[in-house]
Each structure stands twice: as structure tokens, then as C-alpha cells.
Write a structure and sequence with these properties.
By secondary structure, the chain is an alpha/beta fold. It is 51% helix and 13% strand. The chain has a five-stranded parallel sheet. Helix 1 crosses helix 8. The radius of gyration is 15 Å and the shape is globular.
């Protein structure tokens, strides 16, 4: 399929961007890029390790460079890390000639998912209330996406089909 743009999945950590992105790319016969995976491959470190050894600002700089480079491509599905869309430069370039899609879930679902996974460096030391505040803050920025999918009670295939339907692909 030729889109002449990218489909960019945004949302909180544990919102399913990588899983949905892979399925969406496969269904549309597009290339898929997961920015967190690319960062880990380039640095030869897990994201948790990067945060521990180099700090968040180091990670965000690498993330920004990789994403801005990826956005030069076309006809791709790109899954951004949970904090990437917060960066204004990333957000502006993502929204220019691309479709940004926010995978939205309830606070409870996201908190439950995040707490089950120890690979989330931003959230690992946060209380439930701090995590809730982070989710609310990021949601205000995610809401600037071109499209919002309320994923609660939906199966993966339903989410993929909803995206295709919304974008009229």
C-alpha cells in the first residue's frame, strides 16, 4: 500500500503501540519501526540500562535523533516511546504530513499494566498517584494527535481495524 505518509502510534507506555504497530503494518503491508527497539539496538543497551547509566536526557536526545531520521521515510508504521511525543520537535515533525494515532486506555488499565512490568524506567519508582499525574499530564499532549482510539475493552484486531477504518485505508 502507498500512503505517502507514515502512521505514527503514540500513547503511554504499556498502551500496546508495539503490538498494534506490528499487526497494523502486517495487515497494510508496510514496514514497521519501533523506536525503543531501534534505540536498544543502536546503543546495545536496554532502555532501563540507558536511564540508569546515562540518564533520561541522554536517552531523550538519542530518541529524538532516531525519530526525526525515521520520519524522513514514507509508508511506514512507527511506534514511538511513551515520552517521545512530549518533545515539541518530535511532535511537530510527526504531525506534518503523517497520521498520529493515540492509543488511549483508562488510567486503571494503564497503571495495572505498567506496575506489572519492570522495564519502564520512567514509572518504576512512582507511586500510583504520581503515575496517575504523569498519565494525566501526558494525555493532554497525546490529545494533540490527529486520531484518538479508545482501546478499552477492544481486542488487538479490533484496534487495528478501527485505525484502518478511521484513516479510510
Amino acid at each position: 500500500m502507498k500512503l505517502n505518509k507514515n502512521l505514527i502510534l503514540i500513547g503511554m507506555m504499556a498502551s500496546g503501540k508495539s503490538t498494534i504497530g506490528r499487526l497494523l503494518a502486517k495487515k497494510l503491508n508496510l514496514k514497521f519501526f519501533d523506536t525503543d527497539f531501534i534505540i536498544e539496538k543502536k546503543t546495545k543497551m536496554k532502555i532501563v540500562e540507558i536511564f540508569q547509566k546515562k540518564g533520561e536526557s541522554y536517552f531523550r536526545n538519542i530518541e529524538k535523533k532516531i525519530i526525526l531520521n525515521l520520519l524522513n521515510k514514507n509508508n511506514c508504521v512507527i511506534s514511538l516511546g511513551g515520552g517521545a511525543f512530549i518533545n515539541e520537535a518530535v511532535r511537530k515533525v510527526s504531525q506534518k504530513d503523517n497520521a498520529t494515532i493515540w492509543l488511549n486506555w483508562s488510567l486503571k488499565t494503564l497503571i495495572d499494566r505498567i506496575k506489572k512490568n519492570n522495564k519502564r524506567p520512567v514509572a518504576s519508582n512512582l507511586s500510583n498517584n504520581e503515575l496517575k499525574d504523569l498519565l494525566i499530564y501526558r494525555s493532554k499532549i497525546y490529545s494533540k494527535a490527529n486520531y484518538k482510539i479508545d482501546c478499552e475493552n477492544m481486542q488487538k484486531t479490533e484496534i487495528v481495524n478501527k485505525i484502518i477504518q478511521l484513516l479510510k485505508l
